[in-house]
Design a protein that fits this description.
The chain is mainly α. It contains twelve helices and no strands. α3 (about 50-70) packs across α8, α8 packs antiparallel against α10 and α11 packs antiparallel against α12 (about 270-285). The radius of gyration is 26 Å and the shape is globular.
Length: about 350
């Protein structure tokens, strides 16, 4: 069962990476999205066949994630999910033409190391230790402040993006904010997976509706859709998605282990492997650059009238004093200098 969970997690990685890349490519052809007009955002998204194809891939990844949480502990599942960043970075480079920096390429190596460590920690895992549900009060105590923090962080990033004379943001603040929302969503998915059963469908449905899981999924799904697609349109997928995935992973492991009460491995070696894999995932987030390089030639100091210059927005480049003649002198008619 544990290795079936590993296979489902890897399949979810492929589906999620493919879905994000398709959505990013579709967003390039859509008008500029704004979180202030969520209905218009949804309308634009639904009008794009390519974006719908990406969303179907993400929905299939969601179904695979349900199978993962029924067979793997939260810490192990999130460690494997982070490995999907390797495929995402490769697809972003090949399909979207996004250039990755040296630190981003180093993060690929770190992600692969994290995957190996977490999978190695599964040896001897007891499937009976995988929790199914969490106390609603504990879950809401974690979820509500986390959702508020994510929304406030996204709003703060929006305000900073409107300031002039700022370097283009690489999307790290957006990724952290959306990652908090999807971290709560991941806990809700874990809870839903624990309540699904084919023995008593009616009873399981009633129990599910009495739990906070479906309502957290609805909120994080609707809000995350608008926020993530707006951020994905503005920033590189090779930055937004890795940051979001890493934050979701760390949040789910830290908070989900407490909420669901899943014990960590008792064996010191397996414990070190699992915690080490999670720690490596955190280094991925810290290694990513916060800003993209400014557009245009770095040494181009020419200014166009009406554009921003070092003197401030809208100022022309400084010219010669008014009393200095700038036109070249005419040559003498006889060709002899005076």
């Amino acid at each position: 069962m544990l290795w079936w969970g590993v296979a489902s997690a890897l399949l979810a990685n492929v589906l999620y990476s493919t879905g994000f890349v398709l959505e990013k490519r579709a967003l390039a052809a859509l008008p500029a999205l704004s979180t202030r007009r969520p209905a218009r955002v949804v309308g634009h998204l639904l009008s794009s066949p390519l974006w719908l194809g990406g969303s179907l891939a993400l929905a299939a990844g969601f179904a695979a994630q349900l199978a993962v949480y029924r067979t793997l502990p939260l810490a192990a599942a999130q460690g494997i999910f982070v490995s999907g960043l390797v495929l995402l970075l490769l697809l972003s480079s090949v399909v979207l033409g996004e250039r990755t920096s040296g630190r981003e390429r180093q993060s690929i190596v770190a992600i692969l190391i994290a995957l190996v460590l977490v999978v190695a920690s599964l040896q001897g895992e007891d499937a009976r230790a995988i929790a199914r549900t969490a106390p609603p009060a504990t879950l809401l105590t974690i979820a509500v402040p986390s959702l508020a923090a994510g929304l406030l962080l996204y709003r703060s990033a929006e305000r900073r993006a409107l300031r002039r004379h700022r370097l283009p943001t690489a999307g790290v603040p957006y990724g952290v904010a959306v990652g908090l929302l999807y971290g709560v969503s991941s806990l809700a998915i874990k809870g839903v997976s624990g309540l699904l059963t084919t023995d008593d469908i009616a009873g399981a449905a009633a129990q599910l509706l009495r739990s906070p899981y479906p309502y957290l999924l609805l909120f994080t799904g609707a809000t995350g859709l608008v926020l993530s697609q707006t951020a994905l349109q503005r920033c590189r997928a090779s930055v937004i998605v890795p940051v979001c995935t890493t934050v979701t992973c760390v949040f789910t492991v830290a908070c989900g282990t407490v909420a669901f009460g899943e014990p960590l491995p008792a064996d010191p070696l397996r414990l070190a492997l699992r915690l080490g894999g999670t720690a490596v995932a955190v280094t991925v987030l810290l290694a990513l650059p916060r800003h993209d390089a400014p557009a245009g030639p770095p040494h181009d100091t020419t200014a166009t009238p009406g554009h921003d210059t070092p003197d401030g927005p809208g100022h022309d480049a400084p010219g010669p004093p008014p009393h200095v003649r700038t036109n070249p002198p005419r040559p003498p008619a006889n060709g002899v200098e005076p």
